[in-house]
Specification:
alpha+beta; globular; 151 residues; 7 strands; binds coenzyme A; seven-stranded mixed beta sheet
Length: 151
């Protein structure tokens, strides 16, 4: 939880699910549930979303991920994100996909790098939904365009 502002209360969690479902209805894509092939049970979500806050890089399509700790260190986030990115480019006609996270979130930045996403420090930004001076406010932005994909 160290890269999040606070754990979600039940009401906030339900509202988050409602926003994901509304996103599927609007865009056709969203944050997909992730399961292992050899086990039943949710291990997290990975997918595409359209951030609702104003930013120099918006409107945009973001690829994001959140896995249970028990599923870290196995490559699942990168594998699932590759599928989400391919769906974005091939199925949904997206031209560029971005990802962003707190400057301190090294595991998430490592996923972006494994995906071959590109970082220009000029894109980095302070997240407008976090209060000024918050330790997680400083964010990096990574981009991947359709013509930069290799697979
Ligand atoms: C961000 C997050 C998904 C990264 O998880 P992760 O396990 O480090 O990333 P991956 O699933 O891609 O796994 C990669 C790791 O699995 C290892 N791995 C093991 N077997 C592997 C395999 N067969 N194939 C690929 N990688 C494998 C890799 O070497 C790598 O480990 P390393 O970082 O020690 O080198 C996870 O930390 C998380 O859910 N954090 C909380 C949510 C969060 O911060 N989300 C982002 C908010 S913006």
């Amino acid at each position: 939880m160290k890269y999040f502002r606070a754990p979600l209360e039940r009401g906030d969690s339900d509202a988050f699910i409602d926003r994901i479902e509304a996103g599927f209805n609007t865009h056709g894509f969203g944050l997909w549930a992730v399961e292992r092939l050899d086990q039943t049970g949710l291990i997290g979500f990975v997918g595409l979303s359209v951030p609702s806050f104003e930013a120099s890089f918006a409107p945009c399509v973001e690829v994001g991920w959140r896995l249970a700790k028990s599923a870290w260190g196995c490559g699942y986030a990168t594998e699932a994100a590759r599928c989400a990115i391919n769906a974005g480019f091939d199925q949904f006609g997206v031209d560029e996909i971005v990802s962003f996270t707190s400057t301190a979130n090294a595991p998430s930045i490592a996923v972006m790098r494994r995906l071959g996403m590109h970082h220009d420090p000029a894109d980095d930004f302070d997240h407008p939904m976090l209060p000024a001076g918050h330790p997680l406010q400083s964010h990096v932005l990574y981009r991947l365009s359709r013509d930069q994909t290799t697979d």
